Protein 1
Amino acid sequence: MTMAPDPPRSLPRFPRDFVWGVSTSAAQIEGAVAEDGRGRSAWDAFAAEPGRIKDGSDPRVATDHYHRYREDVALLRELGVGAYRFSVAWPRVMPDGSGAVNAAGLDFYDRLVDELLAAGIAPVPTLFHWDTPQALEEGGGWLVRETADRFAAYAEVVAGRLGDRVARWITLNEPAELTLLGYGLGQHAPGRQLLFEALPAAHHQLLGHGLAVQALRAQRAGNIGIANSHGPTWPASPAEADTAAADLYDLLLNRLFAEPVLLGRYPDEVAGLLPGPVAEDLRIISEPLDWYGINYYQPTLVGAPAAEGSGPTAFGGIQLPPELPFAPREIEGYPRTDFGWPVVPEALTELLVSFRERYGDRLPPVVITENGCAYEGTGDTERITFLDGHLRALHAAMEAGVEVRGYFVWSLLDNFEWAEGYARRFGLVHVDYATLERTPKASYHWLRDALREQARG
Ligand code: IFM
């Protein structure tokens, strides 16, 4: 058991207008997958395949947020956050991914937005958090260019309905993970194992992002960002084979998704591998953003792959095929979450400072759109230690000159953690999956007190 850190009073002071929030996503909390005209998502289809989800579960009920959103907004209000990041389920709004709009689906988000505003909480919708409509997935999903156009058309519909009340938007969540885990390694929906042939999925998501930015702005919706996952990559040793492998991993996780958006170009190493009129697309992808969202969880230690014939390696619960030209290694000397992820708050400072150094003035103000950890139990002192450490690390980056405007904890509730099922608990609020009862954890009370203290100024 970890010792609880100092009380929140001792946290450094953040700016008065700093945005404090928590994050969730539709597929992970809503449930009600077949209600009110919602279409099927790629995750519904994937979870229905035997053996895909480790605990044999699926997202059909999840936390039943679709029916309990009022209770969840009350929890947010009591927590004292100023903003709530949720995602809109594309198949709830457009059951087939294009064409007919499902009015009942849009109505749900309309009610949620009104409930949030009545509680004094700013709604921050993410337009896409991995739940591709299955009808589009069957046509190739993000491997095909048309999906980007369809995403933009859907973005326009959502902005048309919610834009009068939503003051901050996110296009995509973590296109890196969907590319790598969903299309590259097959550990997430849609379960494709294309390795480097998955790169078109990255390009089409980024194109969809740029087109959605344009569609939102055409609807007069502003204050737009993306939520990209990033983390420092550390070479396993100074040997050239290890530094080259770490550079490649850094390219795939960080540069491949940051550079097109921030600099309007792909890293040279992949430039020739992407489909379509890439130069033209990059002008769309690099539409200037109002802010840049970073999801941070952990650094990664990377070395050269093990000797030939050594078989697949397991990393963070994921089986990696031996033909990958890099091999993540366990980081020693740090505490670990229940997921096995190392807890390294100072790597958040390192990441933010390195982004500022890499991208200079091309980096707009940053918002941490996700940060959190998986631990069991409601007396979760480890989560308090995690949050305390990461908030100090964030503050250190701000003191070093990085402009950071907000911080969102992942997650409000325990929820459906993708291929892990319900076994990993990231919530500030415990969910009993038998009764769906919500119980705020020690970390929820800690954060509430910390936010009150910040508000006292
Ligand atoms: O649960 C996920 C979320 O959907 C995306 N970012 C990482 C979280 C924890 O794995």
Protein 2
Amino acid sequence: MPRVVVVGTGGTIAGSAPTAAQTTGYQAGALSVSQLLDAVPALGTVARIAGEQLASIDSKDMSLALWLQLSKRLDSLLASDEIDGAVITHGTDTLEETAYFLHLTLKSAKPVVLTAAMRPATALSADGPMNLLNAVSVAAAPVSHGRGVLVAFANRIHSARDVTKTSTFSIDAFDSPEAGPLGWVHDGRVEYGRRVEHRHTVATPFRLARSAAAPVTDAVLHDALEPLPMIGLVTSYAGASRVPVDAFVAAGAAGIIVAGTGSGSLHHDLQLALAEAVERGVIVVRASRVGSGHILRNGSAADDRLGFISAGTLSPYKARVLLMLALAAGMREFDVLQAAFDTF
Ligand code: ASP
């Protein structure tokens, strides 16, 4: 039987409310990972399970320190011959950011699957137990190897690169808007419909800790990853203000992601502030607030000439994760950074 480790970090999947009718006003991360595992005896028919509690937080409070801890812990668990795959239970709020951070930093081809829930564990028709069973099925399946970090939610399997939370309350709360899901999981059956094209896990240079398996040539870049640099996030809108850009520059941000309108277009006041930021050595990346689509380069020649990088299909939140890692790994030149956004 495959051996799967389930790492608990908190979230609504481990949430507890005073009554079964309550789906708001609960405490996220109240239950331990062993309580979650005990509630799903069917897990034992899919894999040999070990549980580990790494944190018990509401994922709105996710920190960079916890990301680093999670990535390093998973790398060491996955390096063991005793583990075939890992599942992470997480809150839905920042799940897509954690998933993409791990997608870029983990150095294993073994399946790593995040899952979560929209209803607390104590609720009527809680969605967590089935999501957990499906996530373990995905992590235990040999066909899941080499696909990067996955998210199993509401019977769909998504890539960490593409997935995003699309509903504040529906139990079908995640989607991969531009690319579609990678596959599906039903009653223990795991099926994939496509592969991830952008590079991930073992094929990125973002290594947090030197592992015994790492080639010597691949080790140097990555000792510089900590502390991760400050990257600001600003939005364009009617009547946009340059105040947040100036504040981030004054605070010493190494980069700024701008969630532009449409295909990453920018209010002229914001564009001017960002162009001045570039002149002061701050890296600026254009993403979009729209939620799907691509940041087209040929339509925004002025932005390209001003030295703004295109996030391509990455959301502003994931663009921030990639820029943080790229700058920490010593990438500075426009062409190198743009290539990173096109590659990862
Ligand atoms: N606030 C919760 C969290 O992200 C929401 C959830 O898990 O659905 O931890």
